[in-house]
Amino acid sequence: MWLVTKREIRERARTKGFLISSILTVVLITAAIVLPTVAGDAAETHRIGSLGAGNEAIVTAAAEVAAAEVADQPAEEADGFEIFNFSSREEAALALQAGEVEVVLIDGESVLVATEGFGGTPLVGTLQQAAGAVRLQELVASNEEAASVIDVLSRDPLAVTTLAGEDSAAAERGTIAYGGLILMYIAVLSYGNAALTGVTEEKNNRVVEVLLATLKPWQLLGGKVLGIGLLGLAQFAATVIVAFVALRATNALELPDLDASIVGVLVLWFVLGFSIFSVLYAAAGALASRPEEAQSASLPMTMIAVLAFFLSFGVLSNPDSTLSRIVTFIPFTAPFVVPVRNALGALTLVEHVLAVIVTVLAIILLIRVAARIYSGGLLSIGRRVKLREAWRGTN
């Protein structure tokens, strides 16, 4: 199986299509992130709401931070800041919801935003820097101990709260869950189809007949899926890393802090989900005689992925519902649901372990079933094979 895996990686990595698509994807994503930032570099005036005392010093410091950012670029002007005072939290929240202000500073201790994470504003980062500078000045002026200074430097001085009442940590967990969900969906459809077309192409050039003479069907299927999967995931990971670095460098979006445990669970289920759908897509490819037929053969898998994707949005809004618990243990929906429930703190350890066991067992079973379909379908050259015919083809 490992020989098949290495062959797939070696052969596909050297094709012009893979190299061009990899380079083009990285270039397009970088351009999509960087160009709007460059085009939007003109100075703007930020509208900041103020509720209570202690906010003006932070806004003044924010203006100094903005000026420092363009100090070595004489052709550019620094962003400006305009303060809007409110007498009550309700009034400030209504103004924020209506878009009259971008954020609301409260008593110099916290900041109210419309949304956190990917939907948030980079302005929060500037205000955090400014608030940190103000706190440091206050500590230095009062001759505080070094421990107090270190404490200020090691954490964000402003607590971040959304209009929905979530604290910053909860909002960031939801953002990571949502981001992971989108990435899972894209990877399943993109690289599942790569496994589909890879099997169909190999069936047409009859290389498979030689391979099946020395390998068992499940070894050939497993090696092909693993090879295409590893190469695809490497390409996908490189794309995500480039996008992440570009977003960090340009500050185009307020990215959340990544929790190691949440990211670890995302990676685990990313691999499990990719494995399930890749095996199914490969088996579907064995039923098609031409690449044109492969897409219709893959329709059931695509529909399952789409259904699981939309189900997970219901989990985002209600992770403790009965439906959320049920789909946690269904192998085709678990990769989309479990990371979301885990990120939102709604998943117990027992549920997580059981979901992993059920999904791994399902993958093992699917490999055996798909290998039989794969074997029966691959040897029917030049025509589309029905599922029942492929199943009986090895008898």
Overview of this protein structure:
The chain is α/β, with parallel strands linked by helices. It is 69% helix and 7% strand. A 5-stranded mixed β-sheet has the order 2-1-3-4-5. α12 (299-317) packs parallel to α14 (334-343). The chain starts with a helix and ends with a helix.
Q: Largest sheet at a glance?
A: 5 strands, mixed
Total number of distinct structural domains? 2
Strand content: 5-15%
Number of strands: 5
Any descriptors?
alpha/beta; 5-stranded mixed beta sheet; 395 residues; 2 domains; 69% helix; D-Maltodextrin-Binding Protein, domain 2
Q: Nutshell version of this structure?
A:
69% of the residues lie in helices and 7% in strands.
List the helices and strands and how they pair.
Elements: H1 2-13, H2 16-39, E1 45-51, H3 56-69, E2 80-86, H4 89-97, E3 103-106, E4 110-113, H5 123-141, H6 146-153, E5 159-162, H7 168-205, H8 207-212, H9 217-250, H10 260-287, H11 291-297, H12 299-317, H13 322-328, H14 334-343, H15 349-378, H16 387-392
Helix pairs in contact: 1-9, 2-9, 3-5, 5-6, 7-9, 7-10, 7-12, 7-14, 9-10, 9-15, 10-14, 10-15, 12-14
